[in-house]
Structures are given as C-alpha cells and as structure tokens.
C-alpha cells in the first residue's frame, strides 16, 4: 500500500457514505517506523502524523518539523500524567484522555499556557479490562466532568477489541459522541478504516497500511 492508495480508499469511502470529500483526516501512524519511511511520507506532502510514545515523538519530530515545516502531530498512545507537560507542548491533539487525573493535569496545564491541544476522550467500547479508556456507561459523566474543568473536548476515540467486528464499537462511540455534542470521531485503523468512515469517523489512524509492518526492537 502507498499513501496515494490509502487516500484514494478514503475518498471512495467518503463518497460511498455520502460524506463531503476531505471530511476525514488521515493520521499517518509513524510509531516505531524507520525514519526513512517517515521522511518518504513527508516528502509526498503528508503533514498529519500520529505517535504512541512521548519520548519517541520528542526524539523525532522537532527536527522533522524544522526540516519540513508545520506538522500536525497527534498523540494516540497512553499518556502518563508525568509526561503531560511535554505532550501538550509537542502535540496538536491528544486522543487518549482516559481518566480523571489526566483531565485535571491537562486542565492545569491549559490554564497555565492559555492553550490546549485538541482533546479526544478515549472510550473502552469493549469494556476490556486490560485496555485504557472510560467505560461506555461512565462516558457521559466523565465528559461532563471534563467540561466542568473548562476543558474543550473535540471528540471521542476508541480502539475496538482485536478479532471482533469493529462496527458495533464504532456505532457505540458515535452514539456517545452524538448525545454529548462531540463532533470528532477518532476511529478506524489499517484493517477497518473504511468501515469507520461509513460509521462517521472524522479521524482515521492508519499505520501499517501506509508504512508497512512495524518491527519492534
Ligand atoms: C498503532 C496504532 C494505530 C495504527 O495501527 P495500524 O493497524 O498499523 O494501522 C492506530 N491507533 C492506535 C491507537 C495505535 O496504537
């Protein structure tokens, strides 16, 4: 697969769903990819990337931004509270707001800086015990409490359970977002981004289909 193929597939999925061209943002997930693959995608003109680890992102993106100009950087991995300060300085969006302590920390940082990245509340739609995220039944209260802290929320995000049909999870996330007045829907990865677009995704997070398989050291 190439970036062009993925862009074409997104455009087709938008059209099939009766959605406006360009209504879905493609986040190219570059975690643990060799630098030359990331550079190749930058050279093709792509400027929206996702990373899972603060430290890895910090070691990579300041230089790449100097070289390629503005890059829209999205944090899509679990965020430790003690890395939140670095994260808000580095990232344009955080997709993994998944607990009250992180909300409180981000609210304090936002007040001190007078700015905050776009925030997506991560929902554990499959209620998987090992997975981060707010349980669906707690979502409304959590979203209200974030708003009580003056945090502006952009959307909701989910990672459906592996090996399950993603569609019910996408629909459940869309329901939560709709009833809470959240416009953004961060859902869909290499294997299911077209289904996510059909279900209303505004942000798809695609890694291996663009860059090739990840090899973890
Ligand atoms: C790694 C990752 C992705 C990308 O996964 P692919 O299957 O390679 O497209 C998307 N979202 C999250 C949260 C990830 O951690």
From TrEMBL:
Matches recorded under Pfam families: Ala_racemase_N
Molecular function (Gene Ontology), one example: pyridoxal phosphate binding
Residue(s) carrying N6-(pyridoxal phosphate)lysine: 31
Cross-referenced InterPro entries: Ala_racemase_N, PLP-binding_barrel, PyrdxlP_homeostasis
SUPFAM superfamilies hit by this protein: PLP-binding barrel (SSF51419)
Job of this protein: Pyridoxal 5'-phosphate (PLP)-binding protein, which is involved in PLP homeostasis.
Annotated Alanine racemase N-terminal domain residues: 4-214
Cofactor: pyridoxal 5'-phosphate
Calcium keyword on record: no
Membrane-crossing residue ranges in chain numbering: none
Membership in a protein family: Belongs to the pyridoxal phosphate-binding protein YggS/PROSC family.
Record-given protein name: Pyridoxal phosphate homeostasis protein
Entry coiled-coil feature ranges: none
């Amino acid at each position: 697969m190439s970036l062009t193929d993925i862009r074409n597939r997104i455009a087709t999925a938008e059209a099939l769903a009766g959605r406006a061209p360009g209504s879905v943002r493609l986040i190219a997930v570059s975690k643990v990819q060799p630098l030359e693959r990331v550079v190749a995608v930058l050279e093709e003109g792509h400027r929206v990337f996702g990373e899972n680890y603060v430290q890895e992102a910090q070691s990579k993106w300041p230089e790449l931004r100097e070289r390629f100009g503005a890059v829209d950087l999205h944090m899509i991995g679990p965020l430790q509270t003690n890395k939140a300060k670095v994260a808000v300085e580095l990232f344009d969006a955080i997709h993994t707001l998944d607990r009250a302590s992180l909300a409180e920390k981000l609210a304090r940082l936002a007040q001190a800086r007078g700015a905050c990245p776009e925030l997506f509340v991560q929902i554990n739609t499959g209620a998987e015990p090992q997975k981060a995220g707010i349980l669906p039944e707690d979502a409304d209260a959590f979203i209200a409490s974030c708003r009580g802290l003056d945090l502006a929320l952009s959307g909701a995000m989910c990672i459906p359970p592996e090996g399950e049909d993603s569609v019910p999870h996408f629909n459940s996330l869309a329901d939560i977002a709709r009833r809470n007045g959240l416009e953004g829907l961060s859902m869909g990865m290499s294997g299911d981004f077209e289904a996510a677009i059909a279900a209303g995704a505004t942000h798809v997070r695609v890694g291996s289909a663009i860059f090739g398989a990840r090899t973890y050291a």
